[in-house]
Amino acid sequence: MVKPVPEGRYLELSNGQRIHYHDQGSGSVLIFLHGSGFGANGWSSYKYNLKAFVKAGYRCILIDTPGFGYSDPSESGYSLNTIAESIYEFVVLSKISEATFIGNSHGGAVAMQFALNYPDRVRYMILLAPAGLENSDVYARMEGIRRTVRLAFRKQDISKSDLRSVLQLQLSDPELLNEETLNERYEMIKVQSIGNIRELKIQNLSDRLTELKCPILLFWGRSDKYCPQSGLNTMIKACDNIQNVLLEDCGHWIMIEQSDLFNQISIDFIANH
Asked: Strands, E, within the chain: which ranges?
């Protein structure tokens, strides 16, 4: 059977849960955490960034978070703490003493929760429109979230046309969604349980942002239809050691829509700290 996206490696945690990941390059460790959504996985989220970071001299680990990609579902739920605990055990078992965490959307919220719980393990954070900065009612008003929730809780299976309509909302220009990514995500839906989206619990971390002490690079797109730009303002006010990049003509998938710019700014940020 042909896999929807390339298959990497697996690491088994103490509870028997297997975490799937891609591991390329050598040097300081970068851990990439993808967002949520139908068919979400590390490869589809960061395939346009991996080569540049490896070439710049970094070891890049693309993790499929529990319940997504080829990773096993979580039997303990999908709170930020639960996922951060799984990532922590992955880091310990992989003998990684410190890493830079790169996270988009839900992956950004997981990165922040990880940094709050295990600050000594985090060197820098690069966040792309992270979730976890507002109460749920604020996100519920965003077009992309509304559309995703409607599809997640309806009885019918998700068609490729349904998926296209959701994924196009991730971009400022819907025509930028290519067939390769659409097909990857559609085939991955068949591998994953829809429960991973229904059961996600993303707490509002805004009251704890002042505890984040590592250097942070924050990206946001003005055309984001999933996470409101107010999150950027919240982080700027709360975090002392932060740089921000607000991009015109860019939506929620910054690492895809503005991949070259994201790659270069991020590589420079890491190199200059």
From this structure: 9-12, 18-24, 28-33, 58-63, 78-79, 99-104, 122-128, 200-201, 216-221, 242-247
Question: Domains of the chain by range and CATH?
Answer: 9-271 (3.40.50.1820)
- Interatomic CA distance for residues 185 and 39, integer angstroms: 4
Summarize pLDDT for 33-86 with one digit per residue, the tens.
999 999 999 999 999 999 999 999 999 999 999 999 999 999 899 999 999 999
DSSP 136: H
Q: Is 67 exposed, middle or buried (0-12, 13-18, 19+ CB in 10 A)?
A: buried
Q: pTM of this prediction? A: 0.97
The structure tokens 């080829």 sit at: 70
Q: Quick check: helix, strand or coil at residue 102?
A: strand
- The answer to whether 173 and 254 have CB atoms below 8 angstroms apart is no
Give me the phi and psi of 71, to 5 degrees please: -75, 150
3-state SS of 210-254 is HHCCCCEEEEEECCCCCCCCHHHHHHHHHCCCEEEEEECCCCCCH
Of 63, 99, 98, 61, which Cα lies nearest the Cα of 83? 63
24 forms bridges with which residues in the sheet?
60
Per residue in 172-215, pLDDT (tens digit) is 999 999 999 999 999 999 888 777 788 889 999 999 999 999 99
Give catalytic residues, as residue numbers: 252
Given its phi and psi angles, is residue 77 left (phi above 0), alpha (psi -120 to 50 degrees) or beta? left
Please report how many Cα atoms fall inside a 13 Å half-sphere around the Cα of residue 191, on the Cβ side.
23
Handedness of CA 76, 82, 86, 92 (dihedral sign): negative
